[in-house]
Amino acid sequence: MFDVHLFFDWLNNYILAAPSIILFLGVSIYLTFKTRFIQVRGLPRFFNLIFGGVKEMKKQEKETINPFHALFAAMATTIGMGNVVSPSLAIMIGGPGALFWLVTYMLFGSVIKYVEVSYALDTRAYLKDGFILGGPIQYLRTVGSWLANWYGYLIIFVVVSWSSGQSNTLANIMALEGVPHWIVGASLAGFVFLALSGGAKRVGDFASKLVPIMFVLYVTFALSILLQNLSAVAAAARLVFQSAFSPAAAVGGFLGASVLRAVREGMFRGIFITESGLGTSSIPHSLADTKNPTDQGVLAMGSVLADVFLSVLSGMLVLVTGIWSLGAFRSTLIYEVFKLQAPGIGQYVLLFSVTLFVLTTAMGNTLNGMQSFGILVKDNRFYMNCYMAFTVLMIFAGALVPMKLLWDIIDTLVIFVAVPNLIGIMILTYRRPEVLQLRK
Predict the structure, then answer these.
(1) Position 437 in a domain
(2) Which of 134, 148, 184, 282 has its CA at a distance of 20 to 30 angstroms from the CA of residue 327?
(3) pTM for this one?
């Protein structure tokens, strides 16, 4: 009998593993040299923009949003459950070395985000009703309509699956507190619908308020746990580097992993966290009312620093406590760490911050999906409402499906979406390299 779980596991880990690693890492390394290490050169510009502000357009367009609201709307999809859950998932499957490769891809892959956002703003256009045509579909159209269509019709399903994954993770955590899965799915779907009904501006306003709160809450309690175990932190760090280039031996409930498995798991969780290579984070950035495309690109690239910091914290939490090697594959490790290491208030702080993580990420993903779908259907209200209904339904359904199968399907979709996007930006960097030059 055909086993769909085994099929996706075989496809992802044996057929697509090596080609996907070469694709993502290869493009990120190529663009790093092409832009002369913009990850390093752009840091002073990033901090100047953060503390000095971004030059805005003289007249704000109807559907544009403040550059920093665009940044927070984009960060709402990257600073979220991905940072909390993905490092532990990578470690459980690929071993401690997966955390090294997760961070490595984030740092190299941030240049892809810079390129994506810069071209998204450079190529955006406006419909008569003020709707902005911006993001990967728009810049891919300048390369070839076949690339834009390939990307466009797949990405709307990818972002829906991401939101379903967020719902699934939150439901699994809340189930440990006795909350039924269907209640979590229904509540999250309802909140997302209400937030997205207000459009990009409401998401930007909402995210700009919630992102700092959930960031501070999570970091404060995570650091308090690690600071109590400094000797274990040093040992865990050594284990990460040792396992990055040698097979991880079986220990406890962990079955062991090859170097290829560590690279793949780390890289794919890094892709999921940062969205570098998929182009989706360029969608909210394309709505920013900024003069210089590269300014927004630098902001997007710099935001990866927060992703790296949170991911390292999350990965070290499960390594230091040893919980990564105990029990079966699951998405609730961080909850278990907080419950054991910071009983009482720590447990509920995590539940609160995790709920905010999921809510903002699901909202951001849905906004990205609606923006992409809106470009395909020319902002037709009937079709847009249908897509909204479909997304809300899938968020609810995501809380009810098996977790491992859902993540395997997401990993497969990611590869097929990334191919046209990476091909497109490679061609654009050859045809129009001047767009990527930092502007004063």
Answers:
(1) no
(2) 184
(3) 0.85
Q: 438 lies in a domain?
A: no
Q: How many domains does the chain have?
A: 1
Asked if 342 contacts 359 with a C-beta cutoff of 8 angstroms, the reply is no
In a domain, 4, yes or no: no
Taking only the tens of pLDDT, the chain with its 440 residues reads: 567 777 777 777 777 777 888 899 999 999 999 999 999 999 888 888 777 655 555 444 555 555 655 555 555 555 667 788 889 989 988 889 999 999 999 999 999 999 999 999 999 887 776 667 788 989 999 999 899 999 988 888 888 888 888 898 889 889 988 899 999 999 999 888 877 776 555 555 665 666 677 778 888 888 988 988 888 999 999 999 998 998 777 666 566 678 888 898 899 889 988 889 999 888 878 877 777 889 889 988 988 888 899 899 999 999 998 888 887 778 888 888 888 887 667 777 778 877 877 887 787 788 778 878 877 887 788 888 888 889 989 999 988 887 777 778 888 888 889 999 999 999 999 999 999 998 76
Instruction: Classify residue 5: in a domain, yes or no.
Output: no
Domain containing 102 equals 12-431
Phi-psi region of 211 (alpha: psi -120 to 50; beta: other; left: phi over 0): alpha
- Report whether 63 contacts 200 (CB < 8 A): yes
Distances (CA, A) of 289 to 54, 68, 137, 283, 293: 9, 10, 19, 13, 10
